[in-house]
Design a protein that fits this description.
Length: about 600
């Protein structure tokens, strides 16, 4: 989604802003711009398209040591130079960048127009610049506060005024904003990746907070001017982690990082003596955990698929009724929140609006929500009642890969804890922990077969429709495989339970619709084989993802990929990785923009 950067310090601002925008590219955007103040004037450059297009229009010697920048993902108004941010007031003194949606912008715009203001863009954001200008009486911070007091909706805003050459003002409500504290310089950003090259000392703003920044200091207050004491956090990861490290794409790199990211997610969290897991952030005593009689998982997209697998594992191990639900749906159906239910909000970014709002709705009703997040300090991580960081490291590709397997890992550990408190014996717990521990090694084996997967993708990337079919715990894996293929290669793909195809989707089967079957050596293997035969009987091409040595499956399928043998509950990890690679290579074959697929954003901060 949209990205923000602001700089205030002794250095020339424009290159810092453009470089920061480049680092925000992964979030998804369609246009970008910067505004820099110099000698009482604002210079604004903004363009539809890539950052490279913006960069080519920024004068090489653009002066000014304070500025703001933005990458836009269109919500109100088309993708044009004029709709790109920053937006300015009619006097050209105020510039703002805005993430989020101003819901009452039309009434504010009508009012401003009746006062003679002419709007030059179709965006909701432009009202902010005009309002600040209308309130401005020599104090930008105050004008911003008066403005945001009128706004309904969500915002992360950074504003500047040409007459205050050492002042940026940021305000947050529902869209993330972080202050980076450097040596004699300050940064504001929607995402720490934009500023990590310059500072690791950050302050996360909360909703309702305003920060006023000069190059030397900052002041955080609420809208009533009450001072708010903030803590400085240290970002623990390295700049290299947001670079490609020799891989062609971030998606490829992140798929290959999975053995390591899963190891990180389990590190220090397995207790072999008691054959259980250890998750310090749950903020629940064992007695409280024992009282839980229902678990509900809220999430979106890939994280929702992780939740579906998690529900299966928790029920299997701990015999606790567990359901996963799309967060966007839960929020609006007046959910029943019971005393002994435990909720999980799963979100890689920790900023997904659908998940965040569903979480708040559950909390408002008195429910306890734990977060499973990757981004440290993200809104869901901070607002949840406890939780687990998955420690995947930054995930830059829009298509989520390593976060999915680490989300599973975190939940498997939780299931182990809950299972050991209920049904599981010490021996069963130990076996489960050992099986989980062996997953990274198996994934390394699978990553050694990328040539075969690439070859398969070369032959199948020409098809326009795919079915992904699995059963039981691998049914969500089929859903995730279909999502991955469609989002990066734009091939239409559907995920189904293999048992369901006879209830409708089999009507789609012909020579032009391949079916990709997930066939582990579990109790449902025979049933899935029958479904494969049903597809073959109708001339449908069949790809099978089976377990090493399964000659029967290989003899039925047109093409077979193999994964190593493991225990039943561990197959979702092993079956997912080849489908990620298949999607990746199909996207390459179709010359798609793998890391930034069209229309998508990494972190979806609007409903
Ligand atoms: O950051 P989150 O995990 O909350 O994101 C949820 C979805 O937007 C995300 O998983 C999306 O579906 C990805 N593009 C999938 O690859």
């Amino acid at each position: 989604m949209c990205g923000i950067i602001g700089y205030c310090g002794p250095r020339i601002a424009a290159p810092i802003l453009v470089e920061g925008l480049k680092r925000l590219e992964y979030r998804g955007y369609d246009s970008a711009g910067i505004a820099v103040a110099q000698e009482g004037r604002l210079n604004v450059v903004k363009r539809a398209g890539k950052i490279s297009n913006l960069r080519s229009h920024v004068p090489p010697e653009m002066p000014g040591i304070i500025g703001i920048g933005h990458t836009r993902w269109a919500t109100h108004g088309e993708v044009t130079d004029g709709n790109a941010h920053p937006h300015t007031d009619r006097g050209g003194k105020v510039a703002i960048v805005h993430n989020g949606i101003i819901e009452n912008y039309q009434s504010l715009k009508d009012r401003l127009e009746s006062e003679g203001v002419t709007f030059v863009s179709e965006t909701d954001s432009e009202v902010i610049a005009h309002l600040i200008a209308s309130f401005y009486q020599g104090d930008l911070e105050q004008a911003v506060k008066e403005t945001v007091g009128l706004l309904k909706g969500t915002y992360g805003i950074v504003a500047m005024h040409a007459d205050e050459p050492d002042r940026l003002v940021g305000a947050r409500n529902g869209s993330p904003l972080v202050l980076g504290v450097g040596e004699d310089e300050m940064f504001l950003a929607s995402d720490v990746t934009a500023i990590i090259a310059h500072t690791r000392q950050v302050i996360y703003l909360e909703d309702g907070e305003v920060v006023s920044v000069s190059h030397r200091d900052y002041r955080t207050t609420d809208l009533r001017n009450n001072h708010i004491e903030k803590q400085i956090d240290h970002i623990g990861w390295e700049l290299e982690e947001i670079e490609k490290a020799g891989f062609t794409h971030f998606m490829e790199k992140e798929i290959h990082e999975q053995p390591e990211s899963i190891r990180r997610a389990t590190k220090g969290r397995i207790d072999l003596e008691y054959a259980t897991g250890h998750l310090g952030g749950l903020n629940l005593t064992n007695r409280e955990l024992l009282d839980i009689n229902r678990v509900k998982i809220l999430a979106a997209g890939t994280s929702y698929h992780a939740g579906l697998v998690a529900a299966y594992v928790l029920e299997a191990l701990a015999r606790i009724p567990t359901t996963a639900e799309l967060a966007s749906e839960l929020r609006y159906r007046n959910p029943i929140v019971e005393r002994n239910s435990l909720y999980f909000a799963i979100s890689q970014s920790g900023e997904t609006a659908d998940t965040l709002y569903a979480m708040r709705e559950v909390q408002r009703k008195g429910g306890r929500v734990l977060g499973i997040c990757n981004v440290v300090g993200s809104t869901i991580a901070r607002e949840s009642d406890g939780g687990v960081y998955i420690h995947s490291g930054p995930e830059i590709a829009v298509a989520s890969t390593k976060a999915f397997t680490s989300q599973l890992t975190a939940f498997y550990l939780f299931a182990l804890i809950m299972g050991r408190m209920r049904d599981m014996s010490h021996e069963q717990g130990l076996r489960f922990a050992q099986d989980l521990d062996s997953v990274p090694g198996h994934i390394e084996t699978i990553l050694g077969t990328t040539g075969k997967i690439q070859d398969l993708a070369k032959r199948y990337a020409r098809f326009d429709n795919f079915l992904f079919l699995g059963r039981g715990i691998n049914y969500p894996v089929a859903l995730e495989a279909a999502l991955k293929l469609k989002e990066v290669s734009y091939i239409h793909a559907e995920g189904y339970s293999a048992a369901e195809i006879k209830h409708g989707p089999i009507a789609l089967i012909n020579e032009e619709t391949p079916s990709f079957f997930i066939v582990p050596d579990d109790g449902l293997r025979g049933k899935v084989i029958n479904n494969m035969k049903e597809v073959k009987a109708r001339q449908g091409p069949v790809i099978a993802l089976a377990v090493e040595g399964d000659d029967e499956v290989a003899s039925i399928a047109d093409d077979t990929l193999f994964v190593p043998h493991t225990s039943e509950l561990m197959y979702p990890f092993l079956m997912t990785v080849p489908t990620q690679l298949f999607a990746y290579y199909c996207a390459l074959e179709r010359e798609c923009n793998v890391d930034q697929p069209r229309n998508l954003a990494k972190s979806v901060t609007v409903e």
